[in-house]
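Q: Please design a sequence for this.
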């Protein structure tokens, strides 16, 4: 048929040839391709099944033959060209009752296959029933793959709202981030799963942990200072500002913390931008990427004689340089910024200096 069609084409003008190809030749070629593809895939399956007849038993739900096969074969071994366990194969391709059968026979619900746990495979398929089976049989709901993905991240990425809801209700970590700093919510936004992103956002708001952040300070006129902390009470599910106004008796003004904060803060109304080039520096310390790690920063500065136990500058004419990225990741960004602010003033009074260079995380904020 194809040969005859090509012969007819030789007698046609170029414009008519295009029409002829689209009407007659293309459907023929498409049919040949489909036949070839089916034959290829069938052959692949035959190869798999030839090496592992147990897959046929799983596909047919033949539990008698499975009982006989598993009597002298390891249920947790990997089979076939794809090197999968029987449990993962059933999660991907078989009915729920087959998966349940294998779990009851002792299949390991936490054995990773091809980089994923069985629960991650079920979440990726969006199968809420199989997900529930695995969780009820002690599957680790917060297990991590090599990229630090959880089953919740997989479910959010692949768009199964029912599976996402089930995992959240049963203790999946809402705020966990993978190596790309993405949460399940971030994945749902990236893949445009609007209902999932709305659900996860609402759950996050409802499950915010207690936090206490501040102080945030602004001058009001020449002598008044307005300060507040952001506070979240998880028991009452309330977020509010704890505000206090101060009368500044001096400039700079030493403000005592409040709202469970016992630290002191040096507040200056005007600050000069220091020179970006300095000569004759004999001592220099360079620190990068604090990322909210305030407690570790204190240990480092005290251990190197830069501050005393009261967080005061003790390094004389030394120069302390922060290479940016004070923001992000850690939970004490505000504390770290206030410490740098305080030390900058104290170091200058002692003949030294503190330099803060903006990093990419500051620019992102």
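A: Design:
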């Amino acid at each position: 048929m194809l040969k005859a069609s090509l012969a007819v084409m030789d007698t046609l003008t170029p414009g008519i040839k295009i029409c002829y190809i689209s009407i007659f030749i293309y459907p023929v070629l498409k049919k040949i391709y489909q036949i070839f593809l089916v034959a290829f895939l069938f052959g692949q399956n035959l190869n798999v099944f030839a090496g592992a007849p147990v897959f046929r038993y799983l596909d047919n739900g033949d539990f008698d033959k499975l009982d006989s096969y598993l009597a002298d074969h390891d249920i947790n071994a990997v089979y076939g060209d794809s090197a999968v366990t029987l449990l993962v194969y059933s999660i991907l391709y078989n009915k729920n009752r087959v998966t349940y059968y294998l779990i009851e026979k002792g299949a390991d619900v936490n054995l990773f296959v091809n980089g994923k746990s069985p629960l991650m495979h079920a979440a990726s398929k969006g199968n809420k029933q199989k997900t529930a089976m695995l969780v009820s049989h002690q599957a680790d709901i917060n297990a991590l793959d090599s990229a630090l993905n959880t089953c919740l991240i997989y479910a959010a990425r692949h768009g199964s709202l029912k599976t996402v809801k089930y995992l959240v209700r049963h203790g999946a970590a809402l705020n966990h981030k993978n190596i790309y700093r993405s949460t399940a919510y971030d994945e749902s936004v990236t893949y445009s799963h609007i209902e999932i992103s709305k659900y996860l956002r609402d759950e996050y708001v409802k499950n915010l942990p207690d936090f206490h952040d501040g102080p945030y300070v602004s001058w009001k006129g020449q002598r008044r200072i307005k300060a507040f902390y952001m506070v979240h009470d998880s028991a009452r599910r309330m977020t509010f500002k704890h505000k206090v106004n101060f009368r500044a008796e001096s400039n700079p003004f030493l403000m005592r913390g409040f709202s469970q904060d016992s630290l002191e803060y040096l507040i200056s109304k005007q600050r000069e931008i220091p020179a970006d080039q300095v000569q004759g520096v004999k001592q220099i310390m360079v620190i990068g990427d604090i990322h909210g790690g305030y407690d570790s920063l204190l240990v480092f500065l005290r251990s190197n004689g830069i501050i005393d136990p009261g967080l005061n500058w003790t390094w004389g004419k030394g120069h302390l340089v922060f290479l940016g990225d004070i923001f992000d990741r850690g939970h004490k960004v505000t504390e770290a910024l206030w410490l740098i602010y305080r030390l900058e003033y104290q170091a200058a009074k002692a003949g030294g200096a503190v330099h803060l260079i903006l990093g990419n995380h500051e620019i992102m904020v």
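Q: Thanks. Anything notable?
A: The radius of gyration is 32 Å. The beta strands are 78-79, 84-85, 211-220, 224-233, 238-247, 253-256, 264-267, 284-287, 319-322, 353-356.
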